[in-house]
Amino acid sequence: MRSGVKVAVVGGVFVVVASGVGYGGYNLWTGITGGTAGADPRSASAPKSGPVTPDEVTTTAKDFLAAWAGGESDRAAQLTDDPVGSGPALLGFREQAKVSAVTISPGTATGTTVPFTVRATVTYEGVSKPWTYSSRLTVVRGATTGRPLVDWKPAVLHPKLNSASASIRTGAAKTAAIEALDRKGRVLTAEKYPSLGPVLDQLRQRYGALAGGKPGVETFVDSGVEGVPDTPLLTLAEGEPGKLETTIDAEVQAAAERGVRRYGTASVVAIQPSTGAVRAVANSPANGFNAAFEGKKMPGSTMKIVTAALLLEKGLVKADQVTECPETALYQGRTIGNLNGFSLAGATFAESFARSCNTAFIKKIDDVEKTEGDDFGLAREAGEVFGIGLEWKTGIRSTDGSVPQETGGAAAEQYIGQGTVQMNPLNMASITATAKSGTFKQPYLVAQDLDDRTFARAERKLSPSAARQLRDMMRRTATAGYGTATGAMASVTGDKGAKTGSAEVGGQETSDSWFTAFADDLAVAAFAEGAGHGATAAGPIVAGVLNAD
Asked: How far apart are CA 543 and CA 87, in angstroms?
């Protein structure tokens, strides 16, 4: 927009008020019709309908990009289906992001979508830097006007603008940059370890000031939401980054990155059981939501680690005691079966655990009810022993798992990691670490004394007898010929144990793949969406990470 032009939203319409040369008073475009307010509707022809044509796509994209590049934010906004939202954003590209010059080159359209490349110059307090990035737009037909219009989304302006509250700004960075170091002093960067990008952004926001650095000047995405870190896009003047020591191990992190990269949606976390130190966190896709720490998914049979601990602590089972494992089990109207309808005759509880027999666990619910009354015990065991549901202060945003209090058929589903149980790889790696050490150690990425935060503490340790039996059952799952994790863990050396899981998700043809394991003083859990059995997808991810330690 030219000098002297102001934008305002009045009565739900986008108003462009001009006080400089080249504008005659004001133009008023409604956000509903996209037409000029006050026009006589009887003078307009019937709106065009049907899909936009290739010529309309090309012409609309060209006109929109030309107006945007020319600084005519009002005209560009009028070529979108949301002038109220797009107008201020396009104006801010010049005034807030401090873009002093820009060339935008459209690419070849694919259907109604047009990719384009932005080559801009950002100028702030006498310092100029080139800035290049790519984005895309889609052309649609206006619902009421029939005009071809750009389907406005903030990501049209820049692909990292993912909400209407976000904006691009240039100025002094809010926090100093950090130079993140792994536990051996090696530098960690998002370029080398892509999954750490969102993690490093959060660590910078929380610890930049404490790490001793000095802020520089940047072009960045301001999230507009408290607690959500800004995203740097361009550095105009370097500050002095502060050094921040983390618990990450660069070699383990590299293996985690390689493992998840094979799947469209996958996550993995590695934890040291003796301390709770996080050695790796990786996600695919790598540059978005940190599902490894913040996800909420049903963990399938990996949850049987907690259920087995409950049954062992109550003395309702023993690892070497014969336990029923029928093909199906009915509990309060819910029929639950085993994978491919298998059953075991005369098998011990340890073998049922290693073979992942669902019904062996369901058949024990009545016995738990007799000792707990209406409290089926799983939520209590998860919280008191494994730290689930407590407020974990890892150093970045994280969720600490959820096992709601349930009864009846819903409780039966929880016993095998279905229904209302919600976990992520961080939670399952921590559960496995607790099983290995016998004591919950809250996971963390940066030292507790850096900001004197309070770590979560479980109410009690796993009883010595239950802990010993649980570890032995996990070892059998990873080493016995019939163990569901034996194949995936074959390459892993040392003292090892595991548990597989497959979570059945409504509307999803293939189950989610889960796998969690320990080897010596490292516990790892992985999730791969829609990838099937735990041993075939998540299992190799976990094994690769364990082998890197």
From this structure: 51
Tokens of 43: 């003078």
Predicted confidence (pLDDT) at residue 46 exceeds the cutoff of 90: no
Contact 324, 477 (CB under 8 A): no
Residues 209-218 have pLDDT tens digits of 899 898 999 9
Strands (E), 225-327: 231-237, 242-245, 266-271, 278-284
Please compute Rg for the chain using Cα positions. Answer: 28
Residue 493 has pLDDT above 90, yes or no: yes
Nearest to 425 by CA among 510, 511, 545, 520: 545
Run of H or E including 220: strand 217-222
Reply yes or no on whether the pLDDT at 228 is more than 90: no
What pLDDT does 22 receive?
A: 30
Average pLDDT score over the chain = 90
Q: How far apart are CA 107 and CA 102, in angstroms?
A: 16
Over residues 265-277, the mean pLDDT reads 98
**Cα–Cα distance measured from residue 536 to residue 538, given in angstroms and rounded to the nearest whole number:** 6
pLDDT in tens, 181-209: 999 999 999 999 999 999 999 999 899 98
* Alpha-carbon span 387 to 434, nearest angstrom: 9
- Alpha carbons 384 and 402: distance in angstroms, whole number: 13
What letters, b where the CB count within 10 A reaches 16 and e where it falls short, cover 339-351? eeeeebeebbbbb
**Other CB atoms closer than 10 Å to residue 246's CB: what's the count?**
25
Q: Determine phi and psi for 100, rounding to 5 degrees.
A: -95, -20
Look at residues 361, 371, 372, 373 and name the one whose alpha carbon lies nearest to residue 329. 361
Which has the closest alpha carbon to 303: 434, 441, 418, 389? 418
